[in-house]
Structures are given as structure tokens and as C-alpha cells.
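Quick one, T. Sequence first:
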Amino acid sequence: MSASAVPLPGRLGDPAAEYRTDPRAARPLRAALDGLGLAAPAAAPPVSRTDPLAAVVGFAKASHDGFEAVYAAVCAAEPSRDDVVRTAHTVTGRDGHEIKLSMFRPAGAEGDLPGLVYLHGGGMTILNADNGVHVRWGEDLAAEGLTVVVVDYRNAVSPDGEHRPFPTGLHDCCDAVRWISGHRAELGLSSLVLQGESGGANLCLATALTAKREGWLSGIAGVYAMVPYISGAYGWSEAEKLAELPSLVENEGWFLNTAGMDLFVAAYDPEDTERRNPVAWPYFATVEDLQGLPPHVISVNELDPLRDEGIAFYRKLQEAGVPSTGRINLGLTHGADSIFKSAVGDVYDSLIGDIARFARKF
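C-alpha cells:
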């Protein structure tokens, strides 16, 4: 077969394509999404970034409620683990805000354990730190012999609709990580790595970049970023996307809608002044920005609109000489590897094991 006869993937070859008709789709995930009414293309939002900020914030709040309902549904039948112990801590941030931390450790564990700070996803704009998916993730990582600290940072839009744009959430993450690093002995941490997915991956990368700028990078041993939401390019023209990040077109509507993500960008940076600031959008970090960072793992999913920005960031890490590993999970949509445990258990378990091995290296 000639190269010209090979069809282009996804919507690059067929603008009417859908995840549920994509031959690359993971069959168990497709069935799970279909059961939740999510296998069809994600609907376009009813507002745009040119609408008043109140409308953008209202969309984010509605999205929060909708995704929280999905997360509750996928965890409804899963009991909490009885081999993990959870404790609560509080850190006072730079503006006096009380940042809540949840710490998970294996029951009966004594002495220091490798430490992991988990920053949850949601485009830095939505989702609770304490929902079923995020708690399950912290528990499952802790059960691998880690001390896991989940940071309840402030989203750009609170569950009740309060607007708290960049850099509020990033400051919470940085303040929490600095405190945790400075209290490793009392918390029983032998080392400290950062880990997060989607917007949480953005915050992990941005926290490491900020730590380098501010001179406290030695407290971070490594970063494990999954399906990173780091470009802010979701409102670019189709021509711009095709030229630089074609997965934004190829996988448009596969669980995520880029217009909806662009509204999260508008909520995070309402004045549109941080578009190329690498601590807001790490995709725009220069090689010089990245030089000297600790080891990284970048994990992306094949059928995710965000796939190509993660791959591009991995390649820039390589260019900067940062020890880095890349992985691609075939057939999966954005976040499926951490959200849909029952559908993609082998991938989920593989990631949990890989993250634990990464944390134990230091």
C-alpha cells in the first residue's frame, strides 16, 4: 500500500470521526465511556472566551459539577483501602490562606518512606482534591510503600463560583511543597517527588520551574507528569494547531472539547497576559529554563487532544539535558489512565507501579 493510501488518524482524516468509531480506541474504555454517555464527541460549550467573565466562571462551575458527578460514578462501587492510613495537616500560605494537606501512608509503616506530592487535575480550574478518584489515587500510591501528600490548592474557580486566577493555585502548590520539603524529617519522608495529571501536571512542572528561579529546587528530587495540560493553545486557529500541535485537531472531542479547555484558560488567565509565561504554561519554557531540573517522566495518551504538547515538552527536556523518560498509553483518552481504573486496570496498575519505582529511586 502506498503512503498516500494510508488514512490520516482521527479527525485529521475524517472530520466526523468519533472516539467510539476510532479503530485505535481501547475497547474496555470505549464501553465504559459509552455507559456514562461520554463516548460521543464532547459538546461545545454554550459560551466563549469573548463573553463576560461571569459567563466563563459560570461555565467552569458547571463543568466542575459535571466532572465531579462522573468521578463519583466511576468510584461508586469501590471501598476505601484498609491498609492505608490518612492524616490531615495545614500549611499557611504567603497570603495567609490555610492550605489543607492529606497525607497517606501504609498502615503500620515505620521510619522514613519515599515521599510524593500529588497535585490533582482539572485544568487548574475545577475538581476537588478530596473526591473519590483523587483519594483512590493517593491511597493506591501509598499502598506501594510511599508517603503521599495531596495538596488542596485553590482552583481558578471555586466550587461556589469564586474566581481565583493565576497565580493563586500555583502559589498554594509552591508554598505547600516548600513546607513539606522543610518538614521531611517530621513527616517521615526520605525524598520528595512531584506527581500530577493534566492541570496537576502543569502545576508540578510550574512548581519545579519556580523552585529553580527562587533557589529551592534541591527540595524536589523528580517530577512525574501525566497527560500534561501545558500549552494553553486550545483556542488557536485550526491552522495553528495543525502546524504545531495536530493532536488538538486529530482527537478533538475525544472526552475533551478544546473550546471548553480554552474557557478554562480564560478563567485561569482572564487578562490574557500570561500566554507565554512558562510558570503559567510550561510548554513555553525555554531550554535554558529547563536546564538543571531534576529527572522527569512525561506520560501521554494516544487519543488525547493534549498528546502532542506532552511529547514536545519531553523532547525539550531531552534537548536541555534533563534526565527524562517518555511513555505513550495506546488507545486511551485524556486522563483515562487515572480516572477509569475499572476499565483500564492494567494501564492503571502499570502507572502506579512505575510512579512508585520512580519515587524510590531517590
